[in-house]
Every structure is written in structure tokens, then in C-alpha cells.
Amino acid sequence: MSAAIDFTYSYAFPSNVQQSVKGKPQLALATCNADHAQPHFFDGKVRQPRMLGEMLYVLSDVVRTHFFLPRPAILDPVVTSNEEMLRLEGFSGCCGVYARVDLPASVFEGECKGRGTTNVDFNNDMRAALLRLRDEEDVEFAVGADEVVLSRDGAKTIEKKVKLPLRWIKGFSEVQAYQPRLEPRMEVTAAEGLRFVRGLPKGSRPKMPSYAIPSGRSIRLTQRNQKGAVPILGTHRVKVIEPLLLRAKGLRVWSDDESGASAWEIVYPEGTFFLMISPEVFRGFSGEGQLLRTLATPPPEATIAKVRAALKWQSQVDLEHLARDIGASGSEVEAALGILGTRGLAGYDAINEHYFHRELPFDLAKVEEMQPRLGNARKLIEAGKVRQVGGASDLAKFEVDGTGTVHLVTLSEDGDSCTCPWFSKYLGQRGACKHVLAATLLMQDEKTGSEDL
Amino acid sequence: MTADDLEELVLSIKDAMELAKAFSGLDDKQRAKLSSSAQKLHRQLSEGKPNVSASDRLKEFLSCRTGEVWSQWNSRENRNACLAIFAVGPLSAVKKWQVRVWHDDTPALECVIRDRRPEWMDDWIAHELEQQGTSIEFPTLHGWVQDRVCGKPESDGYYRLFAHHMMRTGFYGKKEEYVPPLSEQLLKASELIPDIDGLFRVETNAFNTNAWLTKGAPAHYETWPQALVRLSRAGHLERAHLLRLALDGLRLDIKQNQLSGYHKFYRAMEPTAAELIDHQPDYIELLCHPVSHVAKFAIDMLAKVEKAKALQSEPFLREVGTVFASEAKGNAIAALKLLQRIVAPTKKAPDPAALAVIIEALRHTDPEVQANAIGMLEPHSKHLSAEQFAALEDMVVLVSASNRPALESLLPNGVGAATSPSPSLTASGLSDGTVDYKPSSFSDGCRGVLDEADAITPIASVDELIDTVFHAIEVVDSPDELERIIDAISRLADQRPADFDQRVAPLLHRLNNGQVGSNGLGAGRIGLGLAVLDLVATWASGTLYRTPEQFSEYSTRQDAFVPMAAHVREISTRVVAREAKPLLAAPTHRGGWIDPVVWVRRIAKMERNSSLERSIDVRLAMLRLAPDNRTEALQLASDLGGDIGRLARFALGGIDRPQKSDRSNYPAWITAARCREPGADWSSEFASLALDDAWPDSLFPAVHEWSSSHKAGQYEQMRWKHPELKIRVRTDGRVDDQEKRGLLATALGKLSGRTITRWEELPTAALCRRTESRHYWPMDLNTTWLAQWLAYLWPQKLDSAHMKAAAKLAQRMDEDSSNWTPNYGFLHALFQRGRPWGEPGHLVLALSLVGKDADVRGLAIDALIEGIENRIFDPVIFAIVMTRLCEGEWVKYNRLGENLLQVAQVSPAHARAIDAALQAWLPDFDLTQRNGHHVLQVLVETQAISGAPISPSTRTVLTSLTGKTKAASLAKQVLG
Fold it and tell me: What is this model's ipTM?
């Protein structure tokens, strides 16, 4: 299977700050989705141009950066629009940093022209112009443009041919799996947050994990893990938010103890910037580890399909309401949304604890094929390498043939275990190994088979 | 030409041009017919293997070839085959990386190409120019373009080739070639002049400023900027166009070195006043540039425009604020100077927009920038609007502590005072910093170290042991885990459940195949690490593992671990025999500590073991006895009989003493003495044992000496100082070091009937061995958990562990964190609860704070923060250490300043402690030296946060600083 797919961004014009027909500065973002349509989502004014400019600038920093190799990335962010919210999401070239700008309707004066998700052009000229937006000015804002405008301006189409790594598409999809598990850990003023971020190592960076811990009213960095500490690997990844803290209201720090992922929410009076970093610099977001169990034992496909059909670009999916509508349980709907999230068909807003509908504008069919650990587990079963060797209903033991040895898997309510190097090293923190998955699947298959009988 | 003819030519012709000419005159059809044969021939020659259908000639040729296949890659025949593919092959074949034309064959390739004029030429060139490196040379390509063999490429690679070729110096490669000045080359090939535009669009070396690019250049050499300036002055190039190109180039997202080259070129063109004014909008736009030197260029140009009284203040004021959002201090200062000229006191009220921008400057991270901005606002405070006062109030929390009072004084009615926050206080009972910081006295050495939170729960079952070992094979979380494993293996050696072999089979498989984690048990492949690995393998397999160690000049074991390794090997021997035995040396608490009461109880249970007092186990255990609970333990020990009872009581401070009859068990008794009083001179007490001993920390306490120096290096213009830390460990000088004794002294000692002590038997002496690292590379300490484990051997007295750490840290002062030689494990010893750091500990701290290793530095900051909270940090000792370190003239004060500032900002009490250290240090510190002001900057902040009084000696030092230096200005600030 190829590691990347060829994709052409085809924009009707380059995103930029230009003079509108009324002679005012206008931030115009060009759009393009998977089938090269160029939707028009928004037209109006932005109430706080400087804040918007700075947030989009930092978002562009994230998408154009590969945080552990000196390699430029030219992968544009996506925007999801509905009447309540405009969200821009970006993913770094290294697949380890996810950024999202949430702009509620109150940030704008104007009209939502359409709902949906599309790519949006970020280019160098636009970046430079973003920093020059000022609150004192009357700045217009457009996401896409209508056909009349395009034909009047005779804009030249901008094409960007890129190779979208499958790993990038997969990571962008699966980063949603981490978000429901995030817990808020600390909240400080923007000034204290700025002091903390400015104190992060600049030139020479630690290779070992650093941790952010509360220190009175502030946060400080430590190299020693302790209760309540938020791990940071790759402090330079957090440093990208520094410009935003100059004018923000506060900083909220989130983390997921199990995976080690952390999130940094810059709070404004209206709108937020949400930056999430993967557990390690060179490791992206592979939600597979977190969702493997769910993927291994998913809710019925019919439920997933019903949930999918019920998604209509809501900025907040009401779980209970949806469950009632389709006649499924809340947990089934949540599991279905989790799976749809890994397929790039839903996002999760940890701040408001809701899923939102958005569909990543890429060919997602290939992504569905990429579940290597689960695939390997199935291969083990098909090759007859998994055997149950005993145990009670709450404690099942299996032998799984490895390379040159036989691994022992124990499935129990207190926790699963395996003797393979992966499990021994991570003790389940990075999800189940293929051996545990294979044993789980075998047990599930046998249970299903006996129920059928 | 047939396929056979082709093969004959390729295999027999020795002259590439002759081969090239052989293909001339073939038409496209003939070439196409030969294409497949040429490709097959090339493949067979590259792989060194004839096809089944290969000719006898080819088979024989290949069978006669000697050497490896890869060594034939540039043989004449292989090169001929490549040329043949160019002569007859398709685009897909010439694009393969294996088909490269050797440099010497370029004339032949040219001949082939010119003759054939393949239709794929443009595509092939485009492909070649996209690669990292190409064999096409620019003159060749240029010639083809001129002769219409191919179209003019537009790819970035073309411009890179163009730039690189024209700027060659003749130093690399063709030294004999005369290279005319670049301007001359361009005038001779004037058709290339339009290509100059591409140099301002594409990343090339043309405008780079690296020294190696002009290495060995002749006197007449011209760089690209020099050539362009010259041609412009002579009227051959349009000046305005070049300036425009340079400015447009600065907007590109390209490497910083090239951006620097663009604005240097722009300056070299010496723009006129009119041009400066004309370009003003560009400069203003560039103020927002994320690269600081580009923003600096913009500020400098605008300063010139302002001098010409043509600055458009409105757009300038609109954009200049972004300069203060970046960290570059120089840019911020320069921008403020420019703003100063705009708001200079005049009869008119200052532009409110200018005041608003100056307020923005308060967001800058540097205190000097903030101070300048406050200074500029002061004379105009009456012109500030309510909105601007509100903005100033918001800034109070952003500015440094030293600037806060000045800023608050600008606010109306002391509004700021109420909102001015102080740095947070930490826990651990620290005061608010108004009381002087006083470190704890450790004169009685009896601060308790045992805490229930640190108690270790022993591994209870074989199941738990198996799981713990599986994890440790992949990653060792801490030495505490290893201690638990060693203890459990010894205690549970006789337990082997029915499924044991099956359960540990994967473990043994990994051990035997070397498939272990890089920071797991397998990381230690020498010395103690290897002993532990062998122990685990012995336990898992039931057979004794003794992996031979491989020492070399560059890889040896750490002597400090020798007794511990012997202990582990002893356990292995018992495990094979399935003899379970609890260990005296198993820690009861994290950090390697043993509760003395528990220790005595353990001895009581094992008392019947007749040789217990001679075991390495008891020696290692004694060094781990905590200072806590010794009185109670001594009372319990009164019931212990035999020599072990005497030994235990002596170690715990009882009245028992070593006797002459204890001579043969001298290792245990000397170790017990060190347990009783770690730093004492025990030579008199042991006189009756007639021991010949002068090992440091054996009968005589160790004296650790060190000095700081540097080794200067130079290569061309570059000079550097390599830090050196010379360490020597000796006894107190009354006796010769045992190490240095010659054969005669040793023989005399034996003849006199004295027992010569062996360091391998004495854990405390082993710790002092070979602390200096010169010519000695103990590989164990490259493993983090082994470096941490060093502090577990004798937690009572960490001096030796600290000195070994210091030796390793000093080796990598100016290097980043390393996975291969991670040093952060050494700082583990600084976090041992309740142990004084002494000079060695403060030396480790100081080295860590001035080093480049970010992992070490981060831990050092943590250690200092906790050290202050626990009153272990001693400002006076720290000052002495810093003074001596600075004698080496290599200390980077900016690093130290940054790190001390971080600690000072934790709380007023921390600021107070740092302040005390600085004031103790300053009288011996040369503040006039380069970058010495970084230390003063910290003092400015600690004074602002803590309000500590200035000592007379500090005042004297600060008053002596005069002039306009940074140090003098900061001194004035401190003195008020």
C-alpha cells in the first residue's frame, strides 16, 4: 500500500488580506474540498480582527511545521462551518500536534452561507498579512467566495499538489479518540501562562519528559513526575502558543494520564485556541491504541450507520437526543461516534464535551484499511496461532505463537496482560497489543458462535 | 548495430568517446530496437549475475570479475553500459538512480546527447534537477540550452546549479581551473543575466554568508552580491530592479541565511535617500517578519528614513508593535529608540498612537526593554488616556519584578499596588522571604531520612516477580525496582510453580537473542548491569549464567560497582542451588535506605549463619543504614550474639570495638566504621589490626580535590575553550595513596606481617576509585539507571557519587542532551532526602546549571528549588564553588543567569536564597568580564522580589562599576 496519496488542492484564489469592493481590508480564505468544489461558507465582518489574525497565524505555524525533522509541510487546515460555530483544524506534518480554532458566531457579524467542511488555503503571503490585522479597523472576513465574485475578479486558480501521507490523514482522524479522555488539570491567567511558556527551553531542549505542575498561582516546568503533573515531550511544541498569550484571557491545561497526551487551551472572551500534543515528539496520534477495544468489539454496523445519517453538521451533537431518536443506548451511540471520529467523520470538543460533525475532505476509504494492529490480530487468529488454554469466565488464559516463542495472554476483569515486549514495556498504556487483541477477538467470536447455537 | 554488437562494444571498448561515436548515426528505430538489450546488459553488469539467456561472452566476463559486486560500479564496462542506455534507452531507464554517468565520461555523454537529441531530454533534465545531487554540470546544461538540445529549465534546481557554478572558487575539486570574477563571467555570457532574477526566488547558495563558500578563493574572487553591485554600478544591471528583487525576496519563506544575504545585498547597494523613502512601505511591512534579523533590517532602514524626516508615522505606528511580540531584544530596543524620536518632548502632545505602541513594548520579555518603555512613558504620563492607563494596569503582571514599582508609579493613585501580584509562595513551610535564608546545619549528621511515603513494598509472590522482571527487561523505571527484583529473586529462589518455565520462556527467548529494551536491564552489558542480567537469566533458566565481560581501552566497568556486582553474582550461585535467602542489603525505603531496626531484626533471623559477618551482603547493608532509629536498633542489637552482634553494635554506635582478632574480617569492620561515622579518621582505632591500608574512605577519609581550567582550541578563525575539570581523590596526606605504591613498598608491607587491604572488598574504597575520567571510560555510567544507582551504594555519604557525576558532567558542558551518554541520572543523588550536599553536591549543581544539556539543567533547577525548600542549598558553598569554577574561564554566564532567574521567580524565599548566593559570590567575581552582566541581571530581580538588604561587600563591588557598560547600568539599578 502506498504511504501517501496524491492530492491537489485547487483554490479559486490565494487566501490573503486584500481590499474588498468596499475598500476595506478583507481576510479572504480560499476553500477547496475533496472533489475540488470551492464552497462558500461565510461572508461578513470580524469583531476582533487581531485575535483572529493571531489565532490563524499560530494555526498556520502548526500546519507548516514538522516538529522533529527539518522538513517543510504544506498541508492546509480544514474549516467546518455552521450557523453556531466556525472551526478551523490543523495537523502538523509530523502528525504530533493538533490545533483547533473555535470561533463562535459572536465573533462575527455576518451570514453563514453554508454548512460543511472544506480545506482552506494557507500561504506565506497570507501569514504575513495576518499579523497586520488590527482591532481598530473594520475588517471583513470571507470563507470561500460566491461565483459572481470569482468571475468578476477573474481570479487565477491556485493549485497545490501534495502527497498526503496516509499516516497524516489517519492521525488527523484519530486524534479525536484522545479528546474525550482529556481532563482539565490547571487554569491560570494569560500572564502566568505567558511567563511559563516564555520559560520553556529555547535552544537546547530536553530529551526526557518534562512536566508542567502548578506552582501557586502559576505553572512551572519540572523534570520530575509527580501527582497532577502534565507531561510534555517536546517543549517546543507548546511554545507555539506564546504569541496568543499576549492578549488572551487565560490558559487551561488538559491531560490524559493514560496516554500522556496533553492539551493547551487559550481562552479568549470569545473563541478559543486548542492545541493538543501527542505523548512523544516522534510519535503521532494513533488513536488505534485507545480505541482498539472499541474497534475490536464495535457496536452494530446498523447503529453506526444510523448515527452517521443523523449527523448534519451540528456544532454539538446531543448524545441523549440522538440515542432516543435512533433507538440505541447512549453508550452505543458514543461508541459509534468514536468510531466515526476515527474515520474522520466527527470531531470532539473536549471543552464543551460534545462531538461535532465534520468530515475531513480527503479520500477516507484508504484510512479505513489502516488498522495494522487489529489487522495483525486477525491474521494471528486466521493462522491458528491463538489457543485458549484455560481459566474461568473472569480470567481467561491464552497461548499466542510469537517469533521463536509462545506468549501467554491473560484476559481478566482486573486487567489484561501479555508476555510480549510491547506489553511488558508499556503495560497497556498504549493500548492492547496484537496478542491481547487476538485473544479478545477469539473469545468474542466463540461467544458469538455459542450464542448463535 | 545488433544487440550482440552492442554487448561487444560495452565489454571491450576502453575509451568512452569511441563508444559514444559508435552510436552516432543510428536512427530512432534502431535505437529503440537496442533499448531492451542495453537495459538488460546494464542490469546484469550491476548485479554481477548473468541471465540464463546471457551470451557466453558475458557469462565468461562476469565469472572472471573479482571483488565484491559493489566495487565494480565504476568499472569501465559498467560505465559503458550507462552511456549505452543514454544512447538508446527510454526516459524511464535514464531516470533510474543506478544509471549515472561518471564525471570523466561527461564529454562522451555530451556527444551521445547531441547526436541523439532525445525527445525526453527536457523531462530528464527536470527530473535530474529535482534530485539532491546531479551529475549534470552547469556548463554542459548551458551548452545544451544554447544549442537547443533542450529547453531552458525553469525548475529551482536550475537556479541552484547556476548559482553554484558561477560562484565556484576553484578551491574544491578543480584547483587548476582559473575562475574569472563572477561579474566577468556574466558579461561574457550575457544570455544568463535574466536568470539572475531566479536567485531572488529560489533557495540557492548565492546569497549565503557561510565562510566555507569562499574558502581558498583567489584575490579577484567576487561573491554574487559583490558581482551584482559592481554590474549595477557599471550600468549593466538595472538598479531599481535589483533593489526590488531583494525586498521581494525578503518576503519568501526560505532559509534564514539567504534572507540575511538579501538584506546585506540591499545595504551593499547603498540605497539613496529617495530610494529609501520610496521603499518605506516595504520596510513597514517587514516589521512583522518572523525572522528577527529581517525585522532588524526594516527598523534600521526606517531609522534612516526618519533621519531624512520622511517617516510616515501612521503606518509605522500601526505595524511596529509586532516587534515587541518577538523575543529579539535588540530589535525592541532599536524600535524604542525610533519611537523616542517620534515622541521626543516637544511643545505638542505626543501622538496617542505612539504612546499606545510604547505601552505594547511592556509585553516584551526583556526587563531592559520594559525599563526603557517605562522611561519613555514617564514624561508623557499626563497625556495618557483612561484607556491607556487601563492597558498599563494590565501590563503590571507581565513586567519583571524589578520594573513593577516604576510602572505602578505611573498609574493614578497607586491603583497598581493593589493589583500587583507577588510571585507565589511554595509549600514546605517557607516564609515570604523577608527573613534571611539560612541553610540547615548538618554538623550532627543526624537529619532523619525515612518517610513512610518512601517505604518499599517487597515483591510478595513469584507471579508478581515474573511480571516485574518482564517490565524491567524493557524499561527500568528506577533502581528501587531493581533492588526489589534482586531481593525477591533471592528470597523466592526455592519457589518454582509448575508453569514457571512456560511463563518465563518468552523472557529467556528475549534475553538469549538480545531483544531487550534500550533502557531496560539489557542496557547494562558490563559490570554490575551484566551481573544483574546474568542473575535474571540464572533465575529464569535454572542454570548459572556467567557472561564473559569484554573490556577494552574504551570500554570498561565502573569500579564503584565491583562489590555490588560480586554480591549479585553470589546470589546467582545460590539461586542455581535453589537456596532462598532474604538479603540484609535490601532497602526498606526508596533511595537505597535501610531502617536500622529492620536490619537488626533481619540479622536476628539469620544469626545462625556462621559466616554472616564476612558476607558482602552485610557490608553493603551497613552503608545503607539510615541515621534514623539507630538508638532503638542498638538496643535490639544487644541481644545479638557472636561476631555479627559485635559488628552490628559497632556500626550502630555501640561500645563494641574492632579487635586484633578481627583482622581477617577487616572489610566488614572498616565498613562498619564508615557506617558509624562516615567522615572520621579511623586509623588509630584500627591500629591493632595491623592493616596496610591507605585507600581513600577506608581507614582514612577521602579528600576530594578539584580544579577548573580549559583547553584552548583553534581552527582558522574559530576559537573555543574546552572546559576541563581535574579531580583527584586522596587520603589526608599523611600516607601515600595505596594506588601509587610501588612493588617495593608492597613487598615491605607484606614482610612486616601487615595485611594489605584490597579495595575490591571495601565498598567505600571502591566508590573512590578512578573518579577522574581521563583515559577511563566506564560504560556502565552511560546507562541512566546505573548512574542513578550510584547514589544507592552509600546514601549516607554521597561525596564520591557526586564527584563521579561532576567528572562526567564536565566532559559534556557544551553539548546537548544525549541518548548515548545521558547525564541526568547523576542528579538523582541531589534529591536524596535529608542528605547534605556539601561541596561535591554543590559542584554537581553548579555544573548542571551552566551546562547545555537541557535534561540535566531542568533537573538541576528542580534540585535547587527543592534544595532551598529543604534548606539543603548553602549559598556560601555555592559561591565558593562558582568562584573556583570561574577560574577555568569557560563558564557561560547567560545559561547560569537564565536558570537562577527561573528559581528566583518561584517565590520570595527562593529569591532570597539566590540573592544570598549571589551576594556571597560577587566580591570574588569579575563583573567586568564578558557576559558577567547576566549574573547582575539576576541580582536585580532577586532584589526586586525579595527586598533583601545589600551587604557592604556587595555595595563596594557594585559601586566600583562605572561607565556605560551593561554591568554598570545594572549595578546602578541594584543600588537604586
Answer: 0.88
